[in-house]
Amino acid sequence: MRLCAWYLYGEKHRGYALNPVANFHLQNGSVMWRINWMADTSPRGIAASCGMMVNYRYFLEDTASNSAAYLGTKQIKASEQVLSLVSQFQQSSKL
């Protein structure tokens, strides 16, 4: 879960999220909301993402500012759950 959070939040390509689905949702103003363990246990889900899935949440009143922040300053809006997992990864990682 920590590695997944880091991949989605911290791994970048030209400053934007490396994952194309994350990049799409973030460009459209979403918040990286929740990472779900074993949410997709289909063979494809296990092979593609170890069964994990991510929820992106759209707060309509914030989508324009979130999108502008991401596109302008490459700032990713994320929930406390995601940020906590990112922090745990950073503390235990040797990267």
Automatic annotation (TrEMBL):
Q: Which domain of life is it from?
A: Eukaryota
Listed GO CC annotations: mitochondrial matrix; peroxisomal matrix
Pfam families in the record: MCD
A single GO BP? fatty acid biosynthetic process
Q: Which InterPro entries match?
A: Malonyl_CoA_deC, Malonyl_CoA_deC_C, Malonyl_CoA_deC_C_sf
What's an example of a GO molecular-function annotation for this chain? malonyl-CoA decarboxylase activity
Q: Which Gene3D superfamilies match?
A: Malonyl-CoA decarboxylase, catalytic domain
Q: Which residues form the Malonyl-CoA decarboxylase C-terminal domain?
A: 1-58
What's the protein called, per UniProt?
DCMC protein
